[in-house]
Design a protein that fits this description.
This protein is α/β, with parallel strands linked by helices. The protein is about 25% helix and about 20% strand. It contains eleven helices and 13 strands. The longest helix is centred in the N-terminal third of the chain and has 12 residues.
Length: about 300
């Protein structure tokens, strides 16, 4: 029996991406987790009981953040919202009061069965859970809903000025990440020794979930060759190479080359040349599943699947 309640908070402004209905469908298949969006994008066509939308303009949201943090938060681009991730638990304290954990993340993701990986045992033992081994994963990270973690962003040196800056700085995966794992290049035994110097470095699980394709992180088999055909069916996520399920697929490196390894960054991102990313109807995807690859979101090609 799973008792821990988790809510994921995502402010998102502008326009829903083309794959958003498929994203919602993957959320729907994780009924033990709730999602809360603050947005001006309107209601998507498909609904899910565990995904809720608060409709608000970008200007109104910036004013709300400014009041909560007592800073002047007025960025020109919604991309700067990524730098708010360390503070979302405090900003949305009232929204999360009935939950044991709050999470932050992105929407360039398709989820598998999250709670098969974030187990009740993990949630009892850890206060901070990330999905990369050496840093906090800004696209998916979970925090125990206590004042210590809602207020942890205040430990970032000069956080007020950094959040007021118009430029996106990646505070979540850089300065905030170091609060929880300070000496990531040291051997594990030495990291554990260092953890006694700060309570923020205890009860932390940074576990690689092999979720982000084309990243510099070595794959499960130790190679730099990441699987390129992924399959979502009945809420479960697999690929054409590994004989196992995955927690989610973070496909940012197909849509943008900004974070690709340097040797791959010279070529355009795979999806940049596609007229249309989603080539499958939502009802068909719900019934038969869908495939995710450099060709976008398509019907599953049985020839690509294992076995």
């Amino acid at each position: 029996m799973q008792h821990h309640k988790i809510i994921k908070i995502i402010p998102y402004f502008g326009q829903w991406p083309e794959w958003f209905e498929l994203y919602i469908e993957s959320c729907k298949n994780n009924p033990q987790i709730n999602w809360l969006f603050y947005t001006d994008c309107g209601e998507p066509k498909i609904k899910s009981p565990n995904v809720r939308f608060v409709h608000i303009s970008f200007d109104e949201y910036k004013r709300f953040v400014s009041e909560r943090l007592v800073i002047r938060f007025n960025p020109s681009s919604p991309y700067k919202l990524c730098d708010l991730k360390p503070a979302l638990g405090f900003i949305h304290e009232l929204d999360i009061q009935d939950y044991d954990f709050f999470a932050v993340g992105d929407i360039d993701i398709i989820y598998g069965q999250i709670r098969d990986f974030i187990t009740d045992d993990f949630l009892r033992r850890y206060d901070v859970i990330g999905t990369h081994k050496r840093r906090l994963s800004g696209h998916f990270a979970i925090f125990r809903n206590i004042d210590k973690y809602r207020q942890a962003f205040r430990k970032i040196p000069d956080w007020q000025n950094l959040m007021e800056m118009d430029k996106h700085l990646g505070l979540d995966e850089s300065k905030f990440s170091k609060l929880f794992v300070r000496h990531k290049n040291h051997p594990l035994w030495l990291q554990k020794l260092w953890s006694y110097s700060s309570s923020y470095q205890r009860r932390v699980l940074y576990k690689e979930q092999y979720s982000t394709i084309l990243s510099p992180i070595k794959w499960l088999d130790g190679s730099s060759d990441h699987p390129q055909q992924w399959f979502w069916k009945d809420g479960r996520l697999t690929n054409d190479r590994d004989n196992r399920e995955f927690m989610y697929l973070h496909f940012m490196n197909w849509k943008s080359n900004r974070w690709l390894p340097k040797k791959l960054r010279e070529a355009p991102a795979a999806w940049s040349s596609l007229d249309r990313l989603v080539k499958i109807d939502i009802d068909q995807a719900r019934q038969n599943g869908f495939q995710i690859s450099s060709k976008g979101f398509t019907s599953i090609n049985p020839d690509n699947m294992q076995g």
